[in-house]
Amino acid sequence: MHSISLLTNMSKIIRRLLFYKGLLAGGAVLACCGCAAMDQAAFQAEPPWACDARADAAVRSEDWSLALTLHEALLDRDPNNCLAYYHRGFIRGRLGDRQAEVDDYHRAAGCGYAKDDQLFFNLGMAHAELGQTELALSAFARAVALNPANADNHFGWGLAAQSLDKPDQAIDAFRRALEADPRHHGARLHLARGPASYTHLQLPT
Questions:
Q1: Which of 40, 59, 114, 125 is 20 to 30 A (C-alpha) from 147?
Q2: Furthest-apart CA pair in the chain: how many Å?
Q3: What is the pTM assigned to this prediction?
Q4: For every residue of 54-100, which 3-state class applies, written as one string?
């Protein structure tokens, strides 16, 4: 069986890179950019939950302790703000409390914020970092179901499948990642470096 360390190491790299990608774009990539930074599609998909400006600013400046305090204060005032649970989960993950991160993602989904594939991608990565690879696989599958056009969702599924010694499923997921984004270097790399059965595949050019 492949070591879980492969998945956890990749998850940390992906989460870090996409976090800064989201900051630069000013959007809601992986819900890392503050609660009020949701894009229009997200507002259409879910009720328009929002955070205050200070909470946003703390997340954008990566002041995780302040961000946590402000989100907890918001949830004290508005315990039905499902998006705030999601963002508090991300913050807790940045502070190293992976189980609390997972718990908040489940709270967010359970109270109604369940149409955002980015939540389930993050949930999959958090489960992976806890060594809960089967749960990670399920979360990535949910992310793919919500947004099959996102190559990272397929890539996460492939990493989890590879860690669980499910090469056929991993191959399929990495190939779907490349179909969604032919420039996805992670999927291309894993197909090229995987077992011998991976190497006969024709990669998109």
A1: 59
A2: 57
A3: 0.77
A4: HHHHHHHCCCHHHHHHHHHHHHHHCCCCHHHHHHHHHHHHHCCCHHH
